[in-house]
Amino acid sequence: MPDRDPQPVERQLPTDEASDLLALVREIAQREIAPKAAEEEDAGRFPREVFTLLSRSGLLGLPYDSEYGGGDQPYEVYLQVLEELAAVRLTVGLGVSVHTLASYGLATYGTKQQQVEHLPAMLGGGLLGAYCLSEPASGSDAASLRTKAVRDGDEWVITGTKAWITHGGIADFYTVMARTGEDGPRGITAFLVPGDAPGLSGASPEKKMGMKGSPTAQVHLDGVRVGDDRRIGEEGQGFSIALSALDSGRLGIAACAIGVAQAALDEAVAYAGQRRQFGRPIADFQGLRFMIADMATQIEAGRALYLAAARLKDAGRPFSKQAAMAKLHCTDTAMKVTTDAVQILGGYGYTADFPAERYMREAKVLQIVEGTNQIQRMVIARHVAGPEGR
After folding, report:
1. DSSP labels for 299-327?
2. Is the pLDDT of residue 80 over 80?
3. Does the pTM of the predicted model rise above 0.90?
4. What does the alpha-carbon distance between residue 22 and residue 78 come to, in Å, rounded to a whole number?
5. How far apart are CA 376 and CA 367, in angstroms?
6. How many other CB atoms are found less than 10 A from the CB of residue 188?
7. What is the DSSP letter of 202?
8. H-type alpha helices, the chain
9. What 3-state DSSP class applies to 130?
10. What is the CA radius of gyration of the chain?
11. What span, in angstroms and rounded, lies between the C-alpha atoms of 142 and 161?
């Protein structure tokens, strides 16, 4: 098998504008992100300048309204942008997905006045967002969150701790879910909190297996005051806003997972074509060829699944079940494909001299974030078999 560079993914895009957009993303990824990705991940360095560039290039608000600085792009296109970014560096792809998630509440449920005031800076003004739902004692059971917001005249005073927050401590704004009423999901309200609000602080970033360049930290809110004009939606509507955001966010995670899996496959194919044993490339051996065929097939299936869900969303149709399926299948695929890539590279795959081991470490977190894959199976089963305990 001759040596060759990985071939770009063949994409079915709805417009010429979308094709030009993907070409721009590939150019930025190869020129600005790829050369430093391995070194910066190893050093745990967050590439804030890359996000500034993406914002200036119109890539941080792609699925939102151009009236407020967004890109007016369908999810079908936006997710493929995420895939391209994640294939080069997951810290960047996932970071864009989280920023989009953090912007979702205001972009979808905010008042016209709120959107005019805040969205242009959030979508195209260089700001970076974070999404605050999980807490130290409420992860999968998010409706049991304890962070409180107490009304004081025209302000709310927010106190509590959020956990596992991507961009925690460095974000310019936080979409925070806090309890304003009764226990359970109906007592939760969403707020847009500035990153420099007095009383808000980030803890030291977690020491993680992978994605070391992406800060994940607890966020402490110690009597943080925000005006009622920063409440998103109605009082008690926060949990439904959070779940709606997560349906869309899970598609972002699925796309990022396929990006990582594609990068691992490309690395494995390139290595197998160059590595010679017993007088021929190891890519000639049936055992490895079958592994590569399975890897490629699962990636294509995952890509088709997340795009099918995206097209449902773009058409305004229900897509919660399909989003859970896409998140489940694509992240499991990423874990399997990256593990197989390490195996194909053998001893070299276990060293940091090749990116396969980094892809494998990064893939694991995608099975956990924005609803573990066990939670995705619960969501899917409820759609297919009905609620539990009927």
Report:
1. HHHHHHHHHHHHHHHHTT---HHHHHHHH
2. yes
3. yes
4. 9
5. 10
6. 27
7. E
8. 16-28, 34-43, 48-56, 75-88, 90-109, 112-124, 238-274, 286-314, 320-345, 356-366, 373-385
9. strand
10. 21
11. 13
> Residue 50's closest CA among 20, 24, 85?
85
Which DSSP symbol is given to 67?
G
| Residue 325 structure tokens | 């399926």
Torsion of CA 332, 218, 106, 311, to 10 degrees: 0
The total number of residues shown for the chain amounts to 390
Tokens of 52: 């500034």
267 in Cβ contact with 292 (< 8 Å): no
pLDDT value at residue 6: 63
Catalytic-labelled residue, pool 84, 135, 362, 370: 370
Any idea which residue has 């560039």 for tokens? 53
pLDDT of residue 2: 39
Map residue 220 onto helix, strand or coil. Answer: strand
Active site residue 370: yes
Please report the sign of the dihedral spanned by the C-alpha atoms of residue 26, residue 30, residue 31, residue 36: positive
Instruction: Average the pLDDT over 256-271 and give the result.
Output: 98
Cβ–Cβ under 8 Å, residues 115 and 106:
yes
